[in-house]
Amino acid sequence: MAPRPTIIVGLLIATLLAISPKNPAQADPDYEVLSGTARAIDADTLEFGFRRIDLWGADAMNWFQKCLINGQSTACGADAWQVTTNLLVATPITCEVRGKSRYHRNMAVCRNANGLDIGQSLIVRGMAVARPDQMPEYQAIQDRAEQARTGVWAGEFIDPLKWRRGERLPEHETEVRRWQRDE
């Protein structure tokens, strides 16, 4: 007589429980340190394997965001992503988790192998705005970038938070027109 499917499933579960670690890692702990190779999803979002981390205290220009620098439309979001990508070359990247984003992703202060704070580096280069409610020390860095007219501070841009909510510079607003048949 063949074993019943419920017995086979029960044996499989018992075997898996017996060989699994006694203290399994939490799926998404609130606070921890991550270290390893990361890639830039957006200028301020890093990915370690399948785990995404947002930078704490620095809000970078968004991937498709455009700015006006010296009267010219620029792809400042793509430029910011390139800065982050260049900073990630020095591995391993170490991120100290500080909190959660509204997307329930961990937010962290991340440094490359040379010790450079990635969020701070984006602010220094004028590719991100400081969020002093998270990192008050970043405000002075942003003030210096503004005074030096570095990066986006050399022209006009929409704060990344407002840009995500749909605000655009007048030059970058798109008008959608319905096609009308000539009669």
Textual characterization of the structure:
The protein is an alpha+beta fold. The chain has one domain: OB fold (Dihydrolipoamide Acetyltransferase, E2P). The protein is 27% helix and 25% strand. The chain is built from five helices and eleven strands, in the order αβββββββαββαβαβα. The chain has a six-stranded mixed sheet. Strands 7-6-11 form a three-stranded antiparallel sheet, with no helix packed on it. The chain starts with a helix and ends in a 19-residue tail after the last helix. About 8% of the residues have low confidence.
Distinctive features:
183 residues, alpha+beta, OB fold (Dihydrolipoamide Acetyltransferase, E2P), 6-stranded mixed sheet, 3-stranded antiparallel sheet, 5 helices, 11 strands
Tell me the total number of β-strands.
Answer: 11
User: Helicity, in percent?
Assistant: 25-40%
- Would you tell me the structural class of the helices and strands? alpha+beta
How far the N terminus sits from the C terminus, by CA atoms, comes to 80 Å
Shape: globular
In N-to-C order, the SSE pattern is HEEEEEEEHEEHEHEH
Strand content: 15-25%
- Output the CATH class name: Mainly Beta
Q: How does CATH name the architecture?
A: Beta Barrel
**Which strand order does the major sheet show?**
1-8-9-4-3-2
Rg estimate, integer Å: 23 Å
Q: What's the number of structural domains?
A: 1
At CATH level 3, the topology is OB fold (Dihydrolipoamide Acetyltransferase, E2P)
Biggest sheet architecture: 6 strands, mixed
pLDDT below 50 for ≥5 consecutive residues: which ranges? Answer: 14-28
Mean pLDDT score? 84
- Helical element count? 5
